[in-house]
Design goal:
Blueprint (H helix, E strand, L loop, with lengths): L1 E5 L6 H12 L3 E3 H10 L3 H12 L5 H12 L8 E4 L5 H13 L6 E6 L2 H9 L1 E4 L5 E3 L18 E2 L6 H15 L1 H9 L2 E5 L4 H13 L2
Parallel strand pairs: 1-3, 1-4, 2-3, 4-8
Antiparallel strand pairs: 5-6, 5-7
Bound molecules: BIS(adenosine)-5'-pentaphosphate, magnesium ion and zinc ion.
């Protein structure tokens, strides 16, 4: 199963990817998570990416295409993969096509999560993630059992640096200008499936799993 989860910031890409990993046993390739790890480790790439991420703009195509192409060649992608947050521009989509064709692979489906802007802002301002294991939560829609502590590992729950309201607005604008055109791009290839991402997490999961099981 080779799929892309497409959708604006806060649409639920990471939340749904985690469920797919568990049920279908394929890895999640999140460029956002990989870039945040590089920022934490202060690698040269991380230092370069940090400025764009803090501003809510995109890291250069060259950098993200490089990390994804490398990641797709690793053995655990043999059975498939979930791309989360990539591609985000038309040049990234074209580069992905070239990388997959060099590996003699093809995408099965692009799942587009549709969520209204007001709901996205509420999701992002209330999002928390475990400092330790990165598991995601929401203070209202997906709260931990106790306080601000991770159910899985007991780690502290923190907010992402780019989940401040002003940065969120920038990320939304960037999405509409640079990433939304990918819907038409993949619709034209006949592999786009649209999901109502406004539904509760479990219902969205049901819709996504129904699509994946039909492939
Ligand atoms: P990235 O980390 O990819 O961020 P994003 O695309 O803005 O998406 P998010 O991770 O914010 O949202 P999500 O859809 O994963 O939502 P989640 O499941 O967490 O990228 C960050 C930055 O890195 C970019 O701004 C850019 O600078 C850079 N970058 C990354 N990739 C790049 C690329 N390819 N090219 C260039 N630059 C790149 O859910 C959100 C919240 O809502 C959670 O709290 C969750 O619990 C809750 N929730 C989820 N689903 C539901 C539901 N159905 N109902 C109610 N609540 C829900
Ligand atoms: Mg995410
Ligand atoms: Zn944890």
């Amino acid at each position: 199963m080779k799929l892309i989860l497409l959708g604006p910031p806060g649409a639920g890409k990471g939340t749904q990817a985690a469920q797919i990993v568990e049920c279908f046993g394929i890895p999640q390739i999140s460029t956002g998570d990989m870039l945040r790890a590089a920022v934490r480790e202060q690698t040269p790439m991380g230092l370069k990416a940090k400025e764009a991420m803090d501003a809510g703009t995109l890291v250069t195509d060259e950098v993200v295409i490089g990390i994804v192409s490398e990641r797709l060649q690793q053995a655990d992608c043999g059975k498939g993969f979930i791309l989360d947050g990539f591609p985000r521009t038309l040049p990234q989509a074209d580069a992905l096509k070239r990388t997959l064709s060099a590996l003699a692979k093809d995408l099965d489906v692009v799942v587009s999560l549709q969520v209204e802007t007001d709901a996205l802002v509420e999701r992002l301002t209330g999002r928390r993630a475990c400092r330790n294991c990165s598991r995601g939560y929401h203070v209202r829609f997906d709260p931990p059992a106790e306080g601000l502590i991770c159910d899985t590992c007991g780690g502290e729950l923190i907010q992402r640096d780019d989940d401040q309201e002003e940065t969120i607005r920038n990320r939304m604008n960037v999405y509409h200008q640079q990433t939304a055109p990918l819907e038409d791009y993949y619709r034209q290839t006949g592999i786009l499936k649209v999901v109502d991402g406004m539904a509760p997490i479990a219902e969205v999961q049901q819709q996504v799993f129904d699509i994946l099981r039909a492939i």
